[in-house]
Structure formats: structure tokens, C-alpha cells
Amino acid sequence: MKTKTDIKLSDEELVYKIVETNNTHLFAVLYDRYSSVVYNKCYGFSKNKEEAQDLTHDVFIKLFVKLRSFKGKSKFSTWLYSFTYNFCVNYVQRNSHKKKERITIVTDDIKEDDNFDEIEDSTLFELKSDKLAKALELIDAQDKMILLMKYQDDMSIQEIQDALELGSSAVKMRIKRAKEKVVRKYQEL
User: Fold this and answer.
1) The whole model's pTM is what?
2) Same structural domain, 20 and 95
């Protein structure tokens, strides 16, 4: 049973207690706190509400199993954010690989002459939203994810670094490349 004490625990305390006791009632408290956030992230990757609900359900099932891997190096909400994004990216990639038998290789080689701001943020903001949504669907899930983190969720470079466990240069390079791809797809539409 959930108690008032359990509901008042911090996220981190709650996670440690769940791992220690395997208590599904405590996990329900965690679910209540984060189900809408996870659903919104899943909805960003899916085409419809039902698929987002299924993804949310799957994220929490996997989360219950993987909760032990939370080490407390970041806030639980940051870790869950990364966990959800990775789950959704894997889901989208798995489905797109079934549709198209192709392999995408991402490299993060940083060259000194790379300019991280070739495409200004204002260029993205000027795009028409319906056409932009179509362009986002046409780029890889990893690229879509990092753009959503930066512009929809308003995460800083540091927060994206923490969530994806990447260096600052790699995050900036991925954002730059993703912006280039989405603008290119947008212009093709």
C-alpha cells in the first residue's frame, strides 16, 4: 500500500526503496509522478495516442526491470528522460529498419573548421509548423530526438550532455547536423 510517507519521498529515495523492496505499490507512486511526462515524450516519437500509450506502458515495464541501473549520478528525472528517449529511439529505429533495410552510421568527428551555428535557430523557428512536422518525420530518430530535446524541451547543451552521456562538442555537432538535415528535408517538401 502507498502511504503518505512514500508519496513525500524524493524521487531518488523512492527509487532506492523500490530497488530495495521490489514493492509495486511504491513503483505506482513513481508511475503517478512521471507517466504524463513519459507519455508526452513517447507521443513525440509516435504517430498516434494509442502507440504513445503502448510505448509509455513498455517504458515503465522496462524501467521496473532496469531501475537497479540508476546510480544517482544525476537527478532521477534526467536519467528517466534519457531512458525514455533511448527506448523511443530504439523503437523507431527498429521499426524503420524493418521498413527499410538500411544502416545509419553516425560519426562525431569534430574538425577545427566546423562551425556549430551555420544554421541559425531563427531559421528553424521561421519554418511552418505542419511542414516542419513532416520534415521531422523524414529525418533519423536520433536527429529528431536531439532537436526535440533542444527546442521542444528547451534543454541546455549541458542537460543534453548529461542525458545522452556525450561530450559538449558531440552534442553541438549532432544539433548542427540535425538542423541541417531538417532544413534540407523541409526545403525538399
Assistant:
1) 0.58
2) yes
Structural domain tally of the chain?
Answer: 2
The upper half-sphere exposure of residue 64, i.e. CA atoms within 13 Å in the direction of its Cβ, equals 15
Walk along the chain (189 residues) in steps of 10 and give the mean pLDDT of each run. Answer: 69 92 90 93 85 92 89 87 87 66 47 52 61 80 83 82 85 90 84
Q: How many Å apart are CA 152 and CA 133, to the nearest integer?
A: 12
- C-alpha separations of 101 from 88, 98, 104, 142, 182 in Å: 19, 6, 10, 17, 22
Q: Tell whether 89 and 176 lie within a shared domain.
A: no
What is the predicted pLDDT for the residue at 97? 57
Length of the chain: 189
Q: Which of 60, 72, 54 is nearest to 28 (CA)?
A: 60
In a shared domain, residues 84 and 138: no
| CB burial of residue 53 (10 Å; 0-12, 13-18, 19+) | middle
Domain range for 180:
121-188
